[in-house]
TrEMBL record:
Keyword Nucleotide-binding in record: yes
UniProt xrefs under SMART domains: AAA (SM00382)
Pfam family, one: ABC_tran
Molecular function GO terms recorded: ATP binding; ATP hydrolysis activity
InterPro entries tied to this protein: AAA+_ATPase, ABC_transporter-like_ATP-bd, ABC_transporter-like_CS, ABC_transporter_ATP-binding, P-loop_NTPase
SUPFAM superfamilies: P-loop containing nucleoside triphosphate hydrolases (SSF52540)
Domain ABC transporter: from-to ranges: 2-231
Name of the protein described by the UniProt record: Putative ABC transporter ATP-binding protein YbhF
Keywords for this protein: ATP-binding, Nucleotide-binding, Transport
Amino acid sequence: MIRVEGLSKTFSDGFKALVDVDLSIQRGEIFALLGPNGAGKTTLISVICGLVNASRGRVLVDGHDNVDDYRAARELIGLVPQELTNEAFTTVWDTVSFSRGLFGKPQDPAHIEKVLRSLTLWEKRDSRLLELSGGMKRRVLIAKALSHEPQVLFLDEPTAGVDVELRREMWEVVRSLRDQGVTIILTTHYIEEAEEMADRIGVIRRGEIVLVENTHALMRKLGSKELTLHLQEPLEAVPESLAGHGLELANEGHALVYSYDAARQEGGSSISGLLADLEAVGLRVKDLHTRQSSLEDIFVSLVQERA
Ligand SMILES: Nc1ncnc2c1ncn2[C@@H]1O[C@H](COP(=O)(O)OP(=O)(O)OP(=O)(O)O)[C@@H](O)[C@H]1O
Ligand SMILES: [Mg+2]
């Protein structure tokens, strides 16, 4: 649906906000772009949407070059911007209908109604934007972006500053859009959001895409696991014969923590080895639990690693 090739953006002050970015977004997927403040997420979206000119490279939207064939490319795209820029005195209905008109599409009250209902804004259709809560204003932005029936929807930090309940509600909205066949690209700081929502995740750092991976594969590949063994009797030190397992003593000697790589575990048998060795030393285990690192841990380690 979207193809980005060798894209670079250097601002007039010489700042390189995007460096040789290649990216392909499949039709119908939810793609999350994850990166720290200033990484280039908004810049990348702005270039794809044709709001900012690229210094090098090109963008194809469903095969349409977004410079040579701007109108065709832009028509396919809906953009929910990061910043709230609403016309305070306009009503919900008018602002959403007007957005559709900007794309030269004929009026279609039935479509606008459908969009407003899907975002639970129907009751508020005659309210002026200044009368809405922050979360409602954000939904108006989504309604505007959907007014001209785009095939791709960009959501730049859709849930920044949004409470937990509304965030879940937004996720539902995004999922239902995807179910209707809309391709979704969202940026987020909330790793939990990427993990929960995205089919694939791209990590951007200092204008470079450092990783693009299927969400589950990413979790599997980079997710380390931890096995904590709670002991019947506390230990003073890790027994000599267990040294090879890289165990750490925790909870004042009442627990042993074993870290392992979930992927590597599949081939080897180090857990069985560990359990056998524990048996051999005569250590009695009271309880055990495992913990898989979250995407957050992965993200932090990835960003630090390359710093
Ligand atoms: N018009 C501009 N002129 C010069 N530098 C700019 C301009 N717009 C953005 N930048 C710089 O480009 C970098 C990337 O900005 P961008 O807004 O794309 O980051 P972001 O990943 O969206 O960050 P955030 O998570 O804070 O929204 C930043 O260092 C920013 O200061
Ligand atoms: Mg941004």
